[in-house]
């Protein structure tokens, strides 16, 4: 049975392979560390923005899987660097001979699987992020007034901080505030006829106004912020409703957060791609180095040419051998047949 993808490795190519693997392993460890930093940063951002994401949004799974993949890549790089360096010394390599086998299996199965899964999540989750932000921001706007309701008392502060930090207003624009009651009922005068008329004119009994919170105001505007009666052309003679950017943030928070999180996810995806490619190169190199040194008894400068390979035989032969071995292992042992009794000897006739 011929080995799969054999490669003849004389002495000098073996040494260069070990030295190159040492460098690639450290690059893999660096890429794994960067993956940990990027995924951790994205996870922290999602934790801060959890109020504006629907609880059912699966986007948080991306940094969690990327954290696990980065940890495995970091460990693979560190162990690979140690093994490749030790392979240059016949006295240091024997302890690593027992480590390389489990490392290759774990790095291929766990590390490769996690990296592929994380890359798939990077490509598949932007749609779910869009839906999660749409639902989460709508809920946050509706609870802006509930400053004394348990579970929602921080919604106003968080939404104000969001609009100030990301220079946004409302879900898709400042007019979103016209359709929700964002003024708490405790600050409304029930004896004011205007308040009564506004509440009675709404089917849901909400106090709706054509105004926005202070956090929507653009501090770069040369004039004082205009927050109320934004739909009345006669209320502010010098204000043009067609150019609200002179006074308010025009971008909605949905677009601002979507762009921010997608940018972080794109950076993480690029880091995962580089990590995946480096991990493939390191694992392939370690496998060729391992099989080549096994043929030389673990001595890199042994006499003769060594042959490295990925598998000792073809895939078909390996599956057949494994099947036969499994069949032999599970085949019940035949019961021992009772020893046959020797036939009685016939008596000799008397003389």
From TrEMBL:
Q: Which gene encodes it?
A: ROM1
Q: How does it sit in the membrane?
A: Multi-pass membrane protein
Assembly and partners? Homodimer; disulfide-linked. Forms a homotetramer. Forms a heterotetramer with ROM1. Homotetramer and heterotetramer core complexes go on to form higher order complexes by formation of intermolecular disulfide bonds. Interacts with MREG. Interacts with STX3. Interacts with SNAP25.
Q: Which GO biological-process labels does this protein carry?
A: visual perception
Biased composition, Basic and acidic residues: where in the chain? 342-351
Outline the segment boundaries, as ranges, of region: Disordered: 329-351
Superkingdom as given in the UniProt entry:
Eukaryota
Q: State the SUPFAM superfamilies in the record.
A: Tetraspanin
Q: Pfam families this protein is in?
A: Tetraspanin
Chain's role = Essential for retina photoreceptor outer segment disk morphogenesis, may also play a role with ROM1 in the maintenance of outer segment disk structure. Required for the maintenance of retinal outer nuclear layer thickness. Required for the correct development and organization of the photoreceptor inner segment.
Transmembrane regions: 21-44, 64-83, 103-125
For this entry, the protein name equals: Peripherin-2
């Amino acid at each position: 049975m011929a080995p799969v993808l054999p490669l003849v490795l004389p002495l000098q190519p073996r040494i260069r392979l070990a030295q190159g693997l040492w460098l690639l392993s450290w690059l893999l460890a660096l890429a794994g560390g960067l993956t940990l930093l990027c995924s951790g940063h994205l996870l922290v951002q999602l934790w801060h923005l959890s109020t504006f994401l629907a609880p059912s949004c699966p986007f948080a799974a991306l940094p969690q899987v990327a954290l696990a993949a980065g940890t495995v890549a970091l460990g693979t790089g560190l162990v690979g660097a140690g093994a490749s360096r030790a392979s240059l010394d016949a006295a240091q390599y024997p302890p690593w001979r027992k480590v390389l086998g489990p490392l290759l299996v774990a790095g291929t199965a766990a590390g490769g699987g996690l990296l592929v899964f994380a890359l798939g999540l990077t490509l598949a989750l932007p749609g779910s992020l869009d839906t999660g932000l749409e639902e989460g921001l709508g809920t946050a706007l509706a609870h802006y007034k509930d400053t004394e309701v348990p579970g929602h008392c921080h919604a106003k502060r968080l939404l104000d901080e969001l609009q100030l930090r990301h220079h946004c207003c409302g879900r898709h624009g400042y007019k979103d505030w016209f359709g929700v009651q964002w003024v708490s009922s405790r600050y409304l005068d029930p004896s004011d006829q205007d308040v009564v008329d506004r509440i009675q004119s709404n089917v849901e009994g909400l106090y709706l106004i054509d105004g926005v919170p202070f956090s929507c105001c653009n501090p770069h505007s040369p004039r004082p912020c205009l927050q109320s009666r934004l739909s009345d052309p006669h209320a502010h003679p010098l204000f043009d409703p067609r150019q609200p950017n002179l006074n308010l943030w025009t971008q909605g928070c949905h677009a601002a957060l979507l762009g921010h999180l997608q940018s972080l996810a794109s950076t993480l995806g690029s880091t995962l791609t580089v990590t995946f490619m480096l991990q493939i190169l390191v694992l392939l190199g370690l496998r060729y180095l391992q099989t080549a040194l096994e043929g030389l008894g673990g001595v890199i400068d042994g006499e003769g040419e060594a042959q490295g390979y990925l598998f000792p035989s073809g895939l078909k032969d390996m599956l057949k051998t494994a099947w036969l071995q499994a069949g032999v292992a599970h085949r019940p042992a035949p019961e021992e047949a009772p020893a046959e009794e020797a036939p009685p000897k016939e008596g000799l006739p008397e003389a």
